Amino acid sequence: MDRDAIRREIELVRADWSARGRHWDRRSDELAEQAARMNEPLIEAAGIEPGQQVCDIATGAGEPALSVASLVGAEGRVFATDLCPEMMLGARRRAAAQGLGNITFRTADMLALPDADSAFDRVTCRFGLMFCPAPARAAAEALRVLKPGGRAAYLVWGPRADTTMFVVFVAAVEAVLGPLDELEEVDLARPFSLGAPGALERALTEGGLTNVEEREVRFAPRVPAEAPFWQAQFDMTFGRALDGASEATRHALLEAAAAGFERLREGDEIPLDVHVRIGVGAKPAG
Question: Where would you tag: which of 19, 193, 203, 267 has the fewest CB atoms within 10 A of its CB?
Answer without folding.
Answer: 267
